[in-house]
Design brief:
The chain is 29% helix and 22% strand. The strands form 2 sheets. The chain has a 4-stranded mixed β-sheet, with helices on one face. Strands 3-4 form a two-stranded antiparallel sheet. Strand 5, helix 2 and strand 6 form a beta-alpha-beta unit. It is elongated, with a radius of gyration of 17 Å. The chain starts with a strand and ends in a 12-residue tail after the last helix.
Length: 149
């Protein structure tokens, strides 16, 4: 699961823009994992509560965080894949935010997969036969061997 969070001011993005961003991000991640793994939150912070460099953002800044849990990068082997992801994500934001004159910042953290559950179930490994069952069901379901992970 990625937990994807946007930090914006109220009404900075319309519902249609949020839906389009959510679809774009979900479609990307769904190449590797079930769509229901992708959690996206738009945190709307009051104008008097969102500052960059000691100055209010005034609806012209977007902060994005991605917490990767289901799949983490091997820090020695996957540097190119990480760069490709960051470049893709930067392009998504540039295309949408630059024409509005906004600035943005983002980062990725990785959480320990062993500390993650869906409906209190241990998720199967991405790409496994058990995961195919979850994809078909559209939700987490008990599976044989989950107690071993």
């Amino acid at each position: 699961m990625p937990l994807l969070q946007f930090y914006i001011n109220p009404s900075q993005l319309s519902l249609a823009e949020k839906e389009e961003l959510s679809k774009t991000l979900t479609d990307f991640y769904a190449q590797l994992m079930p769509e229901f793994f992708v959690d996206i939150i738009f945190n709307e912070l009051p104008y008097d509560s969102f500052f960059i460099g000691g100055k209010p953002t005034n609806g012209k800044f977007v902060r994005f965080t991605a917490d990767h849990i289901a799949v983490n990068w091997d820090k020695e082997k996957d540097t190119e894949r990480a760069k490709m992801y960051l470049n893709w994500l930067g392009g998504v934001f540039k295309e949408r935010f630059e024409p509005k004159g906004w600035t943005w910042e983002f980062h990725v953290t990785e959480s320990d997969r062993n500390l993650w559950r869906i409906q209190s179930l241990v998720p199967p490994l991405v790409g496994s036969e058990e995961m195919k069952i979850w994809v078909e069901a559209g939700k987490g379901v008990p599976w044989e061997g989950m107690e071993k992970l």
